[in-house]
Design a protein that fits this description.
The protein has about 525 residues and is an alpha/beta fold. It has three domains: about 200 residues, P-loop containing nucleotide triphosphate hydrolases (Rossmann fold), CATH 3.40.50.300; about 100 residues; about 70 residues, no CATH class. It is about 45% helix and about 20% strand. It contains 17 helices and 18 strands. The chain has a five-stranded parallel β-sheet with strand order 2-3-6-1-7. Strands 14-15-16-17 form a four-stranded antiparallel β-sheet, with no helix packed on it. It has a three-stranded antiparallel β-sheet with strand order 11-12-13. The longest helix is centred in the last third of the chain and has 36 residues. The model has no long low-confidence stretch (mean pLDDT about 90).
Length: about 525
């Protein structure tokens, strides 16, 4: 039911607005999560329209919007001073009705131009959902604050604290598709009209109930491990940066808020647990400059691609244990020893010398490459070369049954001639059957490894249909990113199958020694 309701709401909010679906969906997500979103983009790309439409998602939704300037005053944002209260009771309070503290959805354009007094009040609202009106504290019912600008705050302007409060940051631009552009400029329908049925709107009670359920959404091992790896990789990235301005600085509070955003996304998608697709929302929560977005996207994508399910399955640990056991078995059953062997002697790297062939033919050298192609079953034509490596003859030959010997055919006769050889030391390995107790110990270890692998295979096979079924249905993450999650899942399955094969080979290697 939740998923169906959300689908209706998002469809209605996006109706008649082109190429802004992701921004609208993220704005709705942050509103339900109780967070704020910053839209970066030029004038006229539907930033204020998104805020005005967002209020329609809520029953009795009230919106407040304001275009900031350096001359804006707190009266214009939070309401005028009540002259009556000041005169009769000597209390400095504002009339907040129909101003920001009284709204559900707030849109603040050119927010960085606001003065310090406005910024300080906004910090309290963003942090605690409280507005201090004179002596009293008002709990505001603001579900979402959307801020916008065509620029981001610069370091040293005193805006760092306010900038940090915007959990989701999204760069919004003009319509790119030619047909969408034509549809937009020729449309006559009022895009500010509320098209959502009243029964599909969200009530205050629903928001509260949803909030409690969201906090209970399960965080899977792969999601928790992915977040930790992303955090580690960002720290690695920061260590390589020479300038503080290029670093991606993320502190504990933001990570905690990110986790709740992921829980909210899972809930609104009708799930009881966060999955790896939800983790792509992290892309919108970490950048401080637009130029950092691609770096963060790469970090998040590579982490999910390489580690998502693998870390949750703890494959690195089992691979390490498997390697150690393979080395132990190899040391125990394979006994190396040195032997002396005769090998064909290489002449100038490319040739071999045939002893005694000059008694029959001109030229005593053959090419190593041609010798390597000779077979016992059939004759082949090979070339004979003299000492100066000049081609002097062609003969038919094959490998002889004797080592380092070739059979040469001439006039229905066969001449078996040896190659010039050199003695070399060579390491050979013989197998030794392990002691009965050692073999029993290996059986116990391989059995535990095999049980673990099969358990993980069963887990992935059971979870796989459910996970894959929902990957492309995420309201807040583009469907094409599901390919990254699917690739990691397939790699994890492949790794488990390879581990199973290695265990089977290892067992065979020490069990079948005569």
């Amino acid at each position: 039911m939740i998923k169906e309701t959300v689908a209706k709401i998002l469809k209605s909010l996006s109706e008649g607005i082109y190429e802004k679906d992701e921004a609208i969906h993220l704005a709705f997500l942050t509103a339900i999560a109780g967070e704020s979103i910053f839209l970066l983009g030029p004038p006229g790309v539907a930033k204020s329209l998104i805020a005005r439409r967002l209020k329609y998602a809520f029953k009795e939704g009230k919106a407040f919007e304001y275009l900031m300037s350096r001359f804006s005053t707190p009266d214009e944002i939070f309401g005028p001073i009540s002259i009556k209260r000041l005169k009769d009771e000597d209390k400095y309070e504002r009339i907040v009705t129909k101003y920001l503290p009284d709204a559900n959805i707030v849109f603040l354009d050119e927010i960085w131009k606001a003065g310090p007094s406005i910024q300080n009040a906004l910090l309290t609202i963003l942090n605690e959902k409280i507005y201090r009106n004179g002596e009293q504290e008002i709990e505001v019912d603001i579900r979402g604050i959307i801020a916008a600008s065509n620029e981001i705050p610069q370091l040293g302007e005193g805006l760092d604290a306010l900038w940090d409060r915007f959990l989701v940051r999204y760069e919004i631009g003009e319509i790119r598709n030619h047909q969408n552009f034509l549809n937009m400029i020729t449309a006559t329908k009022d895009v500010y009209t509320d098209t959502l049925a009243e029964e599909d709107k969200i009530s205050d009670e629903q928001v509260e109930d949803w909030s409690e359920t969201i906090d209970q959404i399960h965080l899977t091992d792969e999601v928790l491990n992915t977040i930790q790896v992303i955090k580690y990789k960002i720290e690695e990235y920061n260590q390589k940066q020479s300038s503080p301005e290029t670093r991606i600085l993320i502190y504990d509070r933001r990570w905690k808020k990110i986790v709740r955003l992921l829980r909210t996304a899972a809930f609104l998608n009708g799930r009881e647990e966060v999955n790896l697709m939800d983790c792509f929302l992290i892309n919108h929560c970490l950048w401080q400059k637009p130029s950092q977005f691609d770096t963060i996207l790469q970090i998040v994508s590579e982490t999910i691609r390489k580690h998502g399910y693998s870390i949750a399955l703890n494959l690195s640990a089992i691979k390490k244990e498997m390697k150690a056991l393979e080395e132990e078995v190899d040391r125990e059953v394979r006994i190396p020893h040195t032997v002396t062997v005769n090998e064909p002697q290489s002449i100038d790297n490319d040739y071999l010398e045939v002893l005694g062939i000059t008694n029959y033919f001109e030229g005593q050298l053959i090419k190593k490459a041609e010798f390597a192609k000779l077979k016992r079953e059939e004759t082949q034509s090979i070339s004979l070369f003299d000492e100066s490596h000049s081609l002097v003859n062609k003969i038919n030959a094959r490998l002889s049954d004797q080592e380092n010997t070739i059979d040469i055919y001439y006039n229905a006769q066969v001449f078996s001639l040896q190659l010039k050889t050199v003695q070399r030391e060579k390491t050979e390995v013989t197998s030794k059957k392990p002691h009965e107790l050692v073999e029993q110990f290996w059986d116990e270890r391989t059995d535990k490894l095999m049980q673990f692998v099969k358990q993980q295979q069963e887990k992935l096979n059971n979870d796989r249909p459910t996970a894959l079924a929902h990957l492309k249905e995420n309201f807040f993450v583009p469907a094409h990113l599901s390919e990254i999650v699917e690739a990691n899942l397939q790699e994890s399955i492949k790794s488990l199958n390879n581990l199973q094969l290695r265990i089977e080979k290892l067992i065979h290697s020490y069990k079948n020694i005569r």
